[in-house]
């Protein structure tokens, strides 16, 4: 679900369009937007505090006997619906492996590559202050 939540609506739509037609889905909870409180920790591991509110959109879909839920950042109703649909479809044993290969694994690989690229860019600007202190 984290991979689906981090993917863009266009990426999800492209992946769904390439798949065979999924069974008819019933909307249990139409996409709706609201706020959640984001919590932080002082120093990363200290006391918790309320950092602020974040907009999220949630949706629930029934696909056969399976119910899919999605909570995605922002106000994108279509993205929440597609993520919930994929969540329900991934629970079906007959569809799971094909959906993992066609949707989740390629998106996860692309997200990992984007994180690695960002890390390489950040590493290129790293300054080792210990080395600078010993140069005096």
What do these coordinates show?
The chain is of the alpha+beta class. It has 5 helices and 3 strands. It has a 3-stranded antiparallel sheet. A hairpin with a 2-residue loop joins strand 2 (48-63) and strand 3. Helix 2 crosses helix 3. The longest helix has 32 residues, at 93-124. It is globular, with a radius of gyration of 20 Å. The model has no long low-confidence stretch (mean pLDDT 91).
List the helices and strands and how they pair.
Layout: H1 2-6, H2 9-17, E1 26-41, E2 48-63, E3 66-73, H3 77-90, H4 93-124, H5 129-134
Antiparallel strand pairs: 1-2, 2-3
Helix pairs in contact: 2-3
What's the number of extended β-strand segments? 3
- What quaternary form is this? single chain
- What's the helical proportion of residues? 40-55%
The number of helical segments is 5
Class by helix and strand content?
alpha+beta
Biggest sheet architecture: 3 strands, antiparallel
Strand order of the largest sheet: 1-2-3
Kindly, what is the distance between the CA atoms of the first and last residues, rounded to a whole number of angstroms?
A: 51 Å
Instruction: Report the order of strands and helices.
Output: HHEEEHHH
Low-confidence stretches: none
Rg (C-alpha, Å): 20 Å
What is the arithmetic mean of pLDDT? 91
Indicate the proportion of strand residues: 25-35%
Shape: globular
């Amino acid at each position: 679900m984290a991979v689906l939540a981090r993917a863009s609506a266009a990426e999800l739509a492209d992946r769904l369009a390439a798949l065979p037609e999924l069974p008819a889905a019933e909307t249990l909870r139409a996409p709706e937007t609201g706020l959640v409180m984001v919590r932080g920790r002082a120093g990363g591991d200290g006391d918790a505090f309320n950092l602020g509110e974040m907009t999220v959109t949630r949706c629930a879909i029934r696909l056969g006997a399976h119910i899919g839920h999605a909570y995605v950042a922002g106000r994108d109703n279509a993205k929440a619906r597609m993520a919930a649909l994929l969540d329900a479809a991934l629970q079906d044993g007959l569809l799971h492996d094909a959906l993992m290969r066609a949707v989740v694994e390629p998106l996860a690989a692309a997200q990992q590559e984007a994180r690695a690229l960002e890390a390489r860019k950040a590493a290129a600007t790293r300054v080792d202050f210990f080395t600078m202190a010993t140069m005096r």
